[in-house]
């Protein structure tokens, strides 16, 4: 069984490459790199691919190695799949060399296939073997080269951490330490997958999963360990997606994913009596708050673009100022990934435990959280400033509800979720109006053409709408109080 973490290098400049090659954790030697040239084979009708089998023959310096990989799983950059390797004489395809009974049984329907090269990889590899503090051994590979398919090429710039023996958590911990120091991001796509896409044999990156399957009678600790692992894997997916194609929308989706994980960590805190996950809650909170200013500026630009269109104004003057003032620092994506990989390793080594079933625990906890939410809502009439903390409670309840809704398949939770989403949106707009002054007030004295007027117009619009939004919030809150909860018997 192959278990490896694949990390793509985000910045391929010479200084960064030197930092990676000299990182003490990788222990890369000064020896000349291995020269690798691999040929991937399949039939004209892609029979092996459809059977989820991968067959290659690779030259490793002066030796030829045939490799068969079977269906496995790839999530968050961690690849786990059965693998067989056999020394061969040349790069001529021959499936009969795999004599292991399991491999031979898989290949039995394909022994008469007319195989052809579908893609190639050429790269150099610096290798080392390191021992983790728990005794696990990890093979480190630093790869640089290219994928070749149908006259096209794509670069290979990656670090692979393959478990030779021991606990896969050691690979995740090593990956976390590297991401903390270096511009690396997990890659759930293998070289083969990238080559198949380059050759036009598959469409695109696999989409993120939409839900983790829940089993009501499962132990709550085991279930939430799996839920948290699934959620952090989705964040890694969204992190990579945002890095590959940065936009306000992809950043918003990433923040939502992080918020959902934070809500689940908070919700299942009672399953963590030794507080092993507290440091991750705090680290995710700090990362999230560091991105708030970037989010605020993007929200203001969005509001102004919409308002300027309605007023038939040129939005450019204020857009330009707000965009220029927005934070320029990167979103610290490798640092976020480092937190997630370490959390993953912790859950792998020490899963959460509890005596109750997932459904019993979730219903008890949701009753408790719902009472706190209703109490916070009653305070709002006398303390309007309490809306911010109430908004956070609404978010947490909604995100947990989205995760746990499949526990009550016979009951409709859509009405409750819709109300929570509406209240969250209204409260968010009120919050945006409250924070707008600190960004826009200084611009009302700006002497650049149109900027002062546009800043004042945007500020006036947001503040004028705030009172209406507070009344609207109260109306929907009354509906929430009378809406049935799916977890009530």
From TrEMBL:
User: Domain named CYTH: which ranges?
Assistant: 1-199
One Pfam match, given by its short name, reads CHAD
Query: Mind telling me what this protein is named?
Result: CHAD domain-containing protein
Q: For this UniProt entry, which segments traverse the membrane?
A: none
Using the record's annotation, list all stretches that form the CHAD domain.
Answer: 217-482
UniProt-listed CDD domains: CYTH-like_Pase_CHAD
- InterPro entries to which the protein is assigned, alphabetical: CHAD_dom, CHAD_dom_sf, CYTH-like_dom_sf, CYTH_domain, YgiF
Coiled coil start-end:
none
Species of origin reads Acidithiobacillus concretivorus
């Amino acid at each position: 069984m192959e278990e490896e973490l694949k990390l793509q290098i985000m910045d391929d400049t010479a200084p960064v490459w030197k930092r990676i090659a000299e990182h003490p954790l990788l222990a890369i030697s000064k020896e000349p790199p291995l020269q690798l040239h691999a040929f991937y084979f399949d039939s004209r009708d892609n029979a092996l691919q459809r059977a989820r089998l991968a067959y290659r023959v690779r030259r490793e310096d002066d030796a030829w190695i045939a490799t068969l990989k079977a269906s496995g799983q790839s999530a968050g950059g961690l690849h786990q799949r059965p693998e067989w390797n056999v020394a061969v004489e040349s790069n001529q395809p021959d499936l009969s060399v795999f004599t292991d009974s399991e491999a031979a049984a898989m290949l039995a329907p394909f022994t008469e296939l007319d195989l052809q090269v579908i893609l190639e990889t050429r790269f150099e590899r610096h290798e080392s073997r390191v021992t983790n503090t728990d005794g696990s051994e990890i093979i480190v590979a630093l790869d640089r080269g290219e994928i070749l398919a149908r006259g096209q090429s794509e670069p290979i710039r990656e670090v692979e951490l393959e478990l030779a023996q021991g606990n896969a958590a050691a690979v995740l911990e090593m990956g976390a330490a590297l991401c903390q120091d270096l511009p690396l991001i997990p890659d759930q796509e293998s070289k083969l997958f990238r080559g198949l896409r380059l050759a036009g044999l598959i469409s695109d990156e696999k989409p993120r999963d939409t839900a983790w399957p829940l089993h009501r009678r499962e132990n709550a600790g085991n279930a939430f360990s799996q839920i948290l692992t699934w959620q952090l894997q989705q964040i890694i997916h969204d992190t990579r997606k945002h890095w590959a194609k940065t936009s306000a929308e992809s950043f918003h989706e990433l923040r939502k994913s992080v918020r959902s994980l934070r809500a689940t960590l908070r919700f299942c805190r009672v399953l963590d009596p030794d507080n092993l996950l507290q440091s991750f809650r705090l680290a995710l909170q700090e990362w999230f708050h560091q991105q708030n200013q970037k989010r605020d500026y993007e929200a203001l630009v969005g509001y102004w673009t919409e308002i300027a269109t309605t007023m038939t104004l040129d939005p450019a003057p204020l857009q330009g100022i707000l965009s220029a003032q927005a934070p320029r620092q990167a979103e610290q994506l490798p640092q976020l990934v480092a937190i997630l990989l370490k959390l993953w390793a912790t859950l792998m080594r020490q899963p959460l435990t509890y005596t109750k079933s997932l459904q019993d625990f979730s219903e008890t906890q949701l009753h408790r959280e719902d009472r706190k939410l209703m109490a916070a809502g009653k305070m709002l009439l006398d303390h309007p400033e309490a809306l911010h903390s109430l908004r956070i409670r609404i978010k947490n309840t909604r995100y947990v509800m989205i995760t746990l809704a499949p526990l009550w398949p016979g009951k409709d939770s859509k009405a409750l979720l819709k109300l929570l989403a509406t209240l969250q949106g209204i409260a968010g707009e009120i919050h945006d109006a409250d924070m707008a002054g600190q960004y826009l007030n200084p611009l009302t004295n700006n002497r650049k053409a149109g900027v002062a007027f546009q800043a004042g117009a945007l500020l006036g619009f947001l503040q004028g709408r705030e009172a209406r939004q507070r009344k609207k919030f109260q109306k929907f809150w009354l509906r929430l109080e009378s809406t049935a909860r799916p977890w009530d018997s």
